[in-house]
Amino acid sequence: MSGQFLDYGADAILMAGLTGKNWHLDDYVERGGYKALKKILSDPNHWTPDQVIAEVKLSALRGRGGAGFPTGMKWGFMPKTAPVKYVVCNADESEPGTFKDRDLLRFNPHLVLEGMIIAGYAMGCARGYIYVHGEIWEAYERCEEAVAEARAAGFLGDGILGSDFSFDIFNHHGFGAYVCGEETALIESLEGKKGQPRFKPPFPANVGLYGKPTTINNVETLANVPFIINNGGQWFLDRNQTGAGGTKIFSISGDVARPGNYEFPLGVPFSKLLVKAGGMRDGLGIKAVIPGGSSAPVLPGAVMLETNLDYDSIVKAGSMMGSGAVIVMNETRCMVRSLLRLAEFYHEESCGQCTPCREGTGWLVRVLHRIEHGEGKPQDIDLLDRIAQDISGRTVCALGDAAAMPIRSFIKHFRDEFVYHVEHHRCQVPDYV
Amino acid sequence: MSKLSVESYEKINAAIAKYPPEHKQSAVMAALAIAQDERGWLSSETLQEIADYLDMSPVAVYEVATFYAMYHLKPVGRYVLTVCTNLSCALQGANKTVAHLKKVLNIDLGETTEDGMFTLLAGECLGACGEGPVLLRNNKKMCGNMTPDAIDAMIAELRQAEKRETL
């Protein structure tokens, strides 16, 4: 796998013992796989769906895809009596900086399948779909192989493990659209349409895929479920002291010596993650960190070095944990240039449905472009901030807010660099973006 | 133009079977990808063929083909190289990767080499930042740590393979 090394850390649960090759069903069963499914389905002490949901609620598992919504509560929203319901695994990770779900699917696909089967049982679904990001074809192929193995072994199909629970999983390959990570855009895409988000309400739990109740969970969220069932919700909650249970896979990239995925208990100090990633590349100083994927507000490096990585601590520091994608920038980087590249991303990925996002992201790119290239006017800095403000909260989905958040935070923390560009009509650093 | 191959139709049928029978439109993304694998790109005749097969209006198929970034609506080279230029990869050297590719292939972004072998594209986040700078080959193969040396090795290998095939 092109030089990537697998060292997820001593605290790893989801990625423990993975070599990159031991992904097959036999390997997974040897690691204790499918025990949780047997535990809930085997008589005489089989669990009721409500028991499963209660255990997940007790664990305080929160969604790992970005929004951090409590998983047990989300499952509880599904109407009990609806005859046809779906569970969907959101594997469309494509937010700049995020690359954890790819490793989970390539190296531990059965863990995700087992979590999804349990989710299907808890919510009374007969069918699930995994929506795989278009650019990670190898992960999609791996999912196809894993599903075939699970079917052959009787973990998927009719009457799983002799119970009266029938469930099957199908993989859907995306084809390059960041917005499809938004759950209603993902549903549209699954239905064979362009991925434009739906207005909410109604929420997918009531009107989802093909108009049926649907729950969409992130890959890493579902991967936690078998451990919660095997060890109990309390055990999961006790993995850290933050009140939200479990570990988190952090994807760290940018100016660090060893970019990659590392799994730690929630609440790990950022400084410890940085050390695990080999520290700063070339021994340079740390200027800025985007702690939760490109949509999360940027923070000065000095602030991050004092911050723990969990939902509440990062919010207190002024950003959000998002998907756990940590982008590190060294002291030589230009914040205007970096922001311009992110703004181009949101402009490119805007689906075009809502005017504030479609037009606003274009304005952001044009104004940032002229500032970076020495043609900015003094009032452009506040203009950027105002455009961002005018996008926020005025769009059907969160992509508009995601485009606005980097703008406002970059200006807030690094205003002097923007002012320098405008006053001196030039950028201080050589090209890197 | 003749129809897509029997093998392609077998794959499309397998994709249709993943969805409830009354929702075969769900297979349109897969059908277009399969057609592109066979033909290299999607002409309006191909879009029409898919539309007919899935009982969709041609415009609905066209909407899908234009919405998702990985479909090619114009002819491309035999090897399409999509380089991620987003922030994480840029911080890890993607700018050098693009500059080097432009130099060795003697084309700009969005162009195809005269021999029809390579098309060079800049892409958005491929979801593999840990191995950045990354490029995606023909929408399928993720190539990580693409330093100038790694690029030279890859291009040489592909040209060599092509030579063997034409012999």
What report would you give on this structure?
The complex is a heterodimer of chains A (433) and B (167). Helices cover 42% and strands 12% of the residues of chain A. Chain A has 17 helices and eleven strands. In chain A, the strands form three sheets. In chain A, strands 6-5-11-8-9 form a five-stranded mixed β-sheet, sandwiched between helices. Chain A has a four-stranded parallel β-sheet with strand order 3-2-1-4, with helices on both faces. Chain A is globular. The model of chain A has no long low-confidence stretch (mean pLDDT 95). Chain B folds into two domains: 6-67, Arc Repressor Mutant, subunit A; 79-166, Glutaredoxin. In chain B, strands 2-1-3-4 form a four-stranded mixed β-sheet, with helices on one face. The longest helix of chain B is centred in the last third of the chain and has 19 residues, at 148-166. Classes of the chains: A alpha/beta (433), B alpha+beta (167). The interface between A and B is large, with 60 and 49 residues.
Which key features would you list for this structure?
heterodimer, A: 433 residues, alpha/beta, five-stranded mixed sheet, four-stranded parallel sheet, 17 helices, 12% strand, globular, B: 167 residues, alpha+beta, Arc Repressor Mutant, subunit A, Glutaredoxin, 2 domains, 7 helices, 47% helix
Summarize the structure.
Chain A is of the alpha/beta class and 433 residues long.
Task: Set out the fold topology.
The complex is a heterodimer of chains A (433) and B (167).
Chain A lengths: L24 H6 L4 H7 L7 H11 L11 H6 L9 E6 L8 H8 L1 H15 L3 E6 L4 H16 L15 E6 L9 H8 L23 E5 H13 L1 H5 L9 E8 L5 E6 L2 E2 H7 L9 E5 L8 E2 H4 L3 E2 L1 H7 L7 E6 L4 H15 L5 H18 L7 H12 L7 H26 L9
Parallel strand pairs in A: 1-2, 1-4, 2-3, 5-11
Antiparallel strand pairs in A: 5-6, 7-10, 8-9, 8-11
Chain B lengths: L5 H11 L11 H12 L4 H10 L4 H10 L11 E6 L2 H5 L2 H12 L12 E6 L11 E3 L3 E3 L4 H19 L1
Parallel strand pairs in B: 1-2
Antiparallel strand pairs in B: 1-3, 3-4
